[in-house]
Amino acid sequence: MNTTTAVAPRRRRRLELNASLVVGIALTIGFLVIAIVSFFWLPSNPNIPNIKNRMLPPGTVDHWLGTDGLGRDIIAQLMVGARTSILVGAGGATISLILGTIAGLVAAAYGKIADETISRGADIMLSIPGMVTALVLAATMGSGALTTIFALTAFFTPSFTRVIRSAAMSVLQEDFITSAKLYGRGKLFILARHVIPNIAGVMIVQFTLYFAAGILTEAGLSYLGVGVTRPSISWGMMLNEAQQTVGISSPLAMWPGLAIVIVVLGLNLLGDGLRDVLDPKLKRRS
């Protein structure tokens, strides 16, 4: 009798570069480069006021996008804001991915009781408005990047759990899983050796989409004053500060808003492009 371990079929997919993927990669790389450069160089300190340079218009020498009401350089603030967006958006998405993957795999593989318990728990968490969670965390922990990451984790983990559970259950119904069970492979081995590699594409795509959602959510929370606050800087906080001078200098609100739109668009295009490459079936259905 052949005792060769049943191995999940490996599908070799040719990387088909489509417009969404190319544009998404370009915008995302640009975003990451700006954030990395901000660790080593900034045109000026984004937190030190310079009243004599307040409200300079775009195009001013040494302040190409102008300054805010306290004379702080807009470019410097946007660069540091990119760094904050990566920290908060990627942090929340990563923790949610880890927790959601564990919960989703347990729900899919460990029987009806585990499935019902985890699924109902996810339903309960999804029924709680995200803003309520953010306000409670801000009241108990104080505003800041860490609080925002916790809030994003609470927002995203139930959704990740549902997606991973569905994808894992689909893989667990395949014939090669039955073969692995016949060879006496345990659940942990099957999950690690067969299920996770086959849902890795789903995990990657979901991560990029929730990374974008995390940046957008963080901007909204910071705009409302329950997210990132100074001396940290975020694009949402810049929007909050800019609303006081909208009638005087509209570009103050335009620049962080434009940054949010470009980065979120880039990550969403990246996710759509990766989805088309990693799951051609979805592409054919659309």
From TrEMBL:
**GO cellular component: a single term:** plasma membrane
- The domain of life for this entry's organism is Bacteria
Give all residue intervals belonging to the ABC transmembrane type-1 domain: 82-271
CDD domains xrefs = TM_PBP2
Q: Name one GO biological process term.
A: transmembrane transport
Read off the PANTHER family from this record. Answer: OLIGOPEPTIDE TRANSPORT SYSTEM PERMEASE PROTEIN APPC, PEPTIDE ABC TRANSPORTER PERMEASE PROTEIN
InterPro entries on file: BP-dependent_transpt_permease, MetI-like, MetI-like_sf
Q: Which PROSITE patterns match?
A: ABC_TM1
Name the Pfam families on file: BPD_transp_1
Stated name of the protein? ABC transporter permease
Keyword field: Cell membrane, Membrane, Transmembrane, Transmembrane helix, Transport
